[in-house]
Amino acid sequence: MILVERVVTRLQEDYCDSGKGDLFAALKPMLDGEMNPEGYAAVAARLGTTEAAVKKAAQRLRQNYGELLRAEVAQTVSDPFEVDEEMRNLFTALHG
């Protein structure tokens, strides 16, 4: 969980540093692939953008999250070939 929290914190810092803190806050619930309870349209209206832009931003956020998570996991294994297995174990632990 600490590893995941570190990745989310890094993402949040990156978004805030680029002036997109509000976007990150709105999209954070979508990191695990789940739809924000508000829906894309409501998030778009709140942020003053289009639903398509929110969907694309959510896709990019999940992609960045995956890349950062993979990089963090890679630092915890001794052999680069273990990264995929460790990622599977992490997802199994997180999602039961």
Summarize the entry for a quick read:
By secondary structure, the chain is mainly α. Helices cover 71% and strands 0% of the residues.
Secondary-structure topology with pairs:
Blueprint: H1 2-17, H2 21-27, H3 40-47, H4 51-74, H5 83-95
Overall description:
The chain is mainly alpha-helical. The chain has one domain (2-95). The chain is 71% helix and 0% strand. The protein is built from five helices and no strands. Helix 1 (2-17) packs antiparallel against helix 2 (21-27), helix 1 packs across helix 4 (51-74) and helix 3 (40-47) crosses helix 4. The longest helix has 24 residues, at 51-74.
Features:
96 residues; elongated; 5 helices; single chain; mainly alpha
Structural class: mainly alpha
Radius of gyration: 15 Å
Main sheet attributes: strand count, strand direction, barrel closure: none
How many domains, in number, for the residues? 1
Number of strands: 0
Total number of helices: 5
Order of SSEs? HHHHH
What is the residue-averaged pLDDT? 88
The poorly predicted ranges are: none
N-to-C terminal Cα separation, in Å? 13 Å
